[in-house]
Each structure stands twice: as structure tokens, then as C-alpha cells.
Amino acid sequence: MTTAPLRLTYDLAGYDNKAACAVTRKRVLPGYMRNWMLIYLIFVIVLYVTMLVLQRQAPALARYSAPLLLLVLFGGAGLMIWTGLRARARIWRAVDQGRLRQGPTELLADSDGLTISTPLVRTTVDWRAVLDVIPGRDGLLILVGEMEFFSVPASAFADDAAQTAVMQQLRAYVAARNEAAA
């Protein structure tokens, strides 16, 4: 491939990594895994209806078990949601404030692969490892795994046309790798 090397310099400060992860999650996870809370809610409703039916059919047996069971289910769900949201918030803060995301980032793409450099880290990825290049909510995502990606924010491009041109050039590198492997 004789395409001229591509070089971009950008800064990831303020980049919304959470939104980028949401884009990849929608590509990868089945609907039932993305909507686990809705499924849990349906389960709780079915359990509640079952308890109501049980109370009508055998009131002596179900008088104490239904309220206690519902209290445990709703309390457990609330605790699960609360701890999950706290953990996610802590993780996103750590990602956004991570030392590896500070300072200027340089992306170099040539026929040998993709190199991403920051003041602390240099990562080189062979084109065989790149799955796809997709538009994200704010820039491009270079997928190197189902949920692993490198972000290139929209601020790295002059306009949407430049972003589209870079995406096409990166996809051309990936396509050339696929043709060479075939």
C-alpha cells in the first residue's frame, strides 16, 4: 500500500469516554444484557403477581412470606443499583483523570500499523489487530477488540469532511490488510 502516512495530534482532556463506550456496547452486547434492569423489573412484577395469587388461594401460608420476600427483592435491587452506580462513577472518574490520558496524543498510521503516543506511553498496533474504524458520538473509534478502542476526538479534525476522509483512509489500511491476508 502506497498511501502517505497519516499523522494527527490531539488532546483527550474532556473527551467523553463514557459515550464512546456506549457506542461500542450497543454494537456488541445483546439487548437482554443492555436492558438487564428492565428484565429484573419484569421478574419482580411477575413475582409480585404470583404472591397476590398465593395470598388469595392460601392466605394462611402466604400471610408472612409475601411482604418479606418483596422487601428482600426490592431492597436487594436497590442495593445492587446503588453500589453499581457508585462503582461506575468511580471507574469513569479514574479513566478521565488517568495519567495516560493527559497531554498531547499523536496518532501515526502507515502501512506497518497504527502508533499512538502520549508523553508516557507509546502503543503500536498491527493492522491485523484493527477490527474496524467507526464514527463515535464525538470523533472516531478505532476498534481493536469488541470493547477495546482508541479514541480520536472530533477536535482533531478541521471539519466533518476531514473526519470522514481520515476514517476512509484508516479503513483503507484495514481493507488492505484483509486483502493481503486472503
In short:
The protein has 182 residues and is of the alpha+beta class.
Q: In words, what does this structure look like?
A:
This protein is an alpha+beta fold and 182 residues long. The protein has helices at residues 17-28, 31-34, 36-57, 59-62, 65-96, 160-181, and strands at 6-11, 104-110, 113-117, 122-125, 132-136, 139-143, 149-153. The model has no long low-confidence stretch (mean pLDDT 79). It is built from 6 helices and 7 strands; from the N terminus they run βαααααββββββα. The strands form 2 sheets. A 4-stranded antiparallel β-sheet has the order 1-2-3-4, with helices on one face. The relative contact order is 0.17.
Structural class: alpha+beta
Shape: elongated
Radius of gyration: 24 Å
Instruction: Write the CATH homologous superfamily of the largest domain.
Output: Pleckstrin-homology domain (PH domain)/Phosphotyrosine-binding domain (PTB)
Tell me the total number of β-strands. Answer: 7
As residue ranges, the low-confidence spans are none
Total of DSSP H or I helical runs spanning 4+ residues: 6
Write the CATH architecture name of the largest domain. Roll
The overall number of domains is 2
What percentage of residues falls in helices of 4 or more residues? 40-55%
Question: Mean of the pLDDT scores?
Answer: 79
Main sheet attributes: strand count, strand direction, barrel closure: 4 strands, antiparallel
Secondary-structure element pattern, one letter each: EHHHHHEEEEEEH
CATH class annotation of the largest domain: Mainly Beta
Sheet with most strands: strand arrangement: 1-2-3-4
Portion of residues in beta strands equals 15-25%
